[in-house]
Design goal:
alpha+beta; TIM Barrel; three-stranded antiparallel β-sheet; three-stranded parallel β-sheet; 7 helices; globular; Metallo-dep_Hydrolase; hydrolase
């Protein structure tokens, strides 16, 4: 398979916290070097994970797959400036990401939720929740997007859950996304949004 590498990067929020590294090298399915989080993970395989459980535990690595951007490329390949011949490769990436999700889950790796959608497409990030709900359960997708993501970023004492002293980041949905995860994918279904205790959207 060769070598795949996400170039070293960091997430810094300006609060003085240590940055969250996001670099990983994978060679023939084995984790050769890693930071705190691995995006996508489409090159991970079961042997690579089982051969490095100590490394995973020691560095608290997390996998953050991003299925929504892959779906966007499949549904609008030309709009992304890609040739239609790339569709097969994109399909292969989606299949490998799906396999990696199952492998990582079996190995006990923390799995967050991302989308890689940028610009105008950011209003479709709920699509990631819908896609993950199809591969796991709606509740598992929701926990990944909230509690697990907060843990990965080192913010679990502030966000990611509902408890005294935490920021009030809440969404009220029109419909029950745990029963019908397609609710996640339509921004108009988010009828009330509370961010850090402040109501920023109210369509009631």
């Amino acid at each position: 398979m060769g070598s795949f590498q996400v170039v070293g990067a960091a997430v810094v929020d300006g609060s003085g916290r240590d940055p969250v590294n996001v670099d990983v090298s994978i060679e023939d399915g084995h984790i050769a070097r890693l930071g705190a989080s691995s995006a996508h993970g489409e090159h991970l395989d079961a042997e690579g994970l089982t051969m490095t459980p100590g490394l995973i535990d020691a560095r608290e690595v997390a996998l953050v797959p991003t299925f929504a951007v892959v779906e966007q490329l499949l549904h609008d390949t030309a709009g992304a400036g890609l040739d239609e011949s790339t569709r097969d490769r994109v399909m292969g990436v989606r299949e490998r990401m799906t396999e990696a999700l199952a492998v990582a889950k079996e190995a006990g790796v923390r799995i967050g939720l991302g989308s890689d959608l940028i610009g105008p497409a950011q209003n479709r990030r709920g699509e990631e929740l819908r896609l993950r709900a199809e591969l796991e359960t709606p509740m598992e997708a929701l926990v990944a997007a909230t509690k697990t993501n907060a843990e990965i970023l080192g913010l679990s004492s502030e966000v990611g859950g509902i408890a005294p002293g935490m920021q009030a980041d809440l969404v009220l949905w029109k419909g029950d996304p745990l029963e019908d995860p397609t609710v996640f994918a339509d921004p108009s279904n988010a009828i009330v949004v509370v961010q850090a205790g402040r109501v920023v959207k109210d369509l009631r």
